C-alpha cells in the first residue's frame, strides 16, 4: 500500500520550512516595523539639524552638524561625489557619479564628518563609514537628463546629532525664489582648481531657485543647453554663488516651517560661477514616485516559491514512481 498523498504533501511542506527559533508576536511586529522604517521614504523625523549658527563657489566653510544628511560618496577611500541620507539604508545622489563600471566593493559612504579627508586616527569617522550593497542608476539617465541614482547601504545607519535624514516630498514648487535654500559640498572653489584645499571642510552657499522660464531665457543665447521640467536652476544671476566640480550628487535643500526638504541634486552647469549661468540640479520631486517605489520594492522580502512548486508537481508523482 502506498503512502497517502496528503502525508507526502505534509512532509514536503515541512521540509521546506527553515529550522530556527519561533518568532513571537512582539518580535514579528518589531521586525515589520523595522522593515517599514527602512523602506519608507518620508520616515519621520527628518529634515532636522542642530541649531548651529555659523563644490561651492562664493560660499563659506560650514560647521559640523549643520547639514547632518550630507554624505560623501567615496571610491577607493577618496571623495568623489556628494549625496544625501534619505533613511537608515538609502542615499540619494547623481547618476553621472557612476559613469564607469560600478565596482560595489570599491565604494563606501561617509556621514557625520566636516572634512572630506578624516584622519586615519579618527575612530568616529571609521564607524560612520558604510559599505555599499547596491547602486541603482535611473534607467532613463543621460549626461544631463534624469541625473539621479540611489545607493543602498549594506547596513543600517545609526542616527545621532551629526547624522540625520533629509525630508523629500512630491512637490517643491513652493520653494521658487525662496530666500532660504542652500547647496553644500566638498567641491572646488573655482573652475580651474583641481581639489579643495586643506582642511577640506564642507562648504555651504545660500542660493535662489529660479523658475524654469527664467532659466531657459538665461541659457537661450548663446548656449544650446536644454532646461527641462526634470531640472531645477539655482544660484545667482551674477554668478556670485554656484556649485562646482566635486559637488556633484550633493543636496540642494530649502527650509519650510523649521523642516528642511531636498529640492535638487547637484547635476551640471556651464562653467562655475559664470554670470547668467546658474547651476542646474535634478528636480527631486519629479522623481519622487520612482524613488519611493524602488525603495519599497527593494525592501520587500523575496517569496519562497519552493512549497508551491512541489505542490504543483504532486499530481505527476505516480508517473515517476519506480516499477
Outline the structure in words.
It is built from seven helices and 15 strands. The chain is α+β, with helices and mostly antiparallel strands and 323 residues long. Helix 2 (25-39) packs antiparallel against helix 5. Mean pLDDT is 80; it is low at 6-39. The relative contact order is 0.19. The strands form three sheets. It has a six-stranded antiparallel beta barrel with strand order 9-10-11-15-14-13. The chain has a six-stranded antiparallel beta barrel with strand order 3-4-5-8-7-6. Strands 1-12 form a two-stranded antiparallel sheet. Strand 13 (251-256) and strand 14 form a beta hairpin.
Describe the structure using short key phrases.
323 residues, alpha+beta, 6-stranded antiparallel barrel, 7 helices, 25% strand, protease, signal, Peptidase_S1A
Could you provide a short overview of the structure?
Residues 56-296 form the Peptidase S1 domain. Helices cover 20% and strands 25% of the residues.
Helix vs. strand class: alpha+beta
> How much of the sequence is in beta strands?
25-35%
- The backbone outline, from C-alpha atoms, is globular
Q: Tell me the series of helices and strands, N- to C-terminal.
A: HHEEEEEEHEEEEHEEEEEHHH
For the biggest β-sheet, the strand order reads: 9-10-11-15-14-13
Number of helices in the DSSP assignment: 7
Whole-number mean pLDDT: 80
- Radius of gyration from CA coordinates: 24 Å
* Helix content estimate: 10-25%
